[in-house]
Design goal:
Fumarylacetoacetate hydrolase, domain 2, five-stranded mixed beta sheet, alpha+beta
């Protein structure tokens, strides 16, 4: 497996907005460990353009998203500094192979997590969370055919993260499993979900990520932002539209996507 060659290929394909095609088998990516090795190298190349890591995205944490992608397990990717936006941001559709929007609960870590020790659970990781907020993830699936999608290619491509948009963080917060999240497009409700839709509670994917990182000798750090997965299925804007996502008792976030 040519890790550097695969990472360079991903850089090229994103620059040229080449349509996403599964590449794991042809590239010799035989396992999730292989896929994350390619992701690590790809992210190191991205960092020269988009800054250092500010956290992570976790994807495929709801049954709706797993069914959409045909993949039955969570995945992770890295979020970079210049791809972190505040509520009210505007982005150009033309800047992506195909832009998608996902609507999530984000958390911000208040303390460093230990690498060693007992595995984290949703209950034990809660003490390390300093705030939660409404968030929109920008994904770039480059017009992938979801019928052909494989988890190894998706992970290697940094799990398609193209950025995140955050509202103000809130602490304390209501019971997150019971929180309702409502998506509006141009002021009209188009979907809704609940905190329990992401593995039963948003802290479940957070614990999954912490344990996955610890297995590699890494850890979440104070200040890291983590996207816990979309409560609803991805939306793919094709014209100028404003999307908002409101989490009851927490806040709302908005993003305008512009055509042309």
């Amino acid at each position: 497996m040519d890790v550097n060659g695969l990472a360079q290929r991903l850089m090229r394909e994103h620059e040229e907005q080449v349509r996403f095609r599964p590449f794991a088998a042809a590239g010799g990516i035989a396992s999730l460990d292989d896929a994350y090795r390619v992701q690590d190298r790809y992210v190191s190349l991205l960092q020269t353009r988009f800054g250092e890591s500010v956290g992570y995205k976790i994807g495929l944490t709801s049954q709706r998203m797993q069914r959409m992608c045909g993949i039955d397990q969570p995945i992770a990717g890295v979020v970079l500094a210049d791809r972190l936006h505040r509520s009210g941001a505007r982005v150009q559709i033309s800047g992506y192979g195909r832009i998608g929007l996902e609507f999530e609960i984000a958390v911000r870590l208040a303390s460093d997590l230990p690498i060693s020790g007992p595995a984290f659970t949703p209950e034990t990781i809660a003490a390390h969370v300093g705030g939660v907020c409404a968030a929109i993830e920008i994904v770039d699936d480059r017009a992938a055919d979801y019928a052909e999608l494989d988890v190894l290619s998706l992970v290697a491509d940094n799990s398609w993260n193209g950025g995140i948009v955050l509202s103000a963080f809130r602490s304390p917060w209501p019971e997150l499993d019971a929180v309702t999240g409502v998506v509006h497009r141009n002021g009209v409700e188009i979907d809704r979900g609940h905190g329990r839709d992401v593995l039963g509670h948003p802290f479940s994917p957070l614990a999954w990520l912490a344990n996955a990182l610890a297995a590699k000798g890494r850890s979440l750090r104070a200040g890291d932002v983590v996207m816990t997965g979309s409560l609803v299925t991805t939306r793919f804007p094709t014209e100028t539209e404003t999307y908002s996502f409101e989490l009851e008792g927490i806040g709302a976030v908005a993003l305008t996507v512009e055509a042309g």
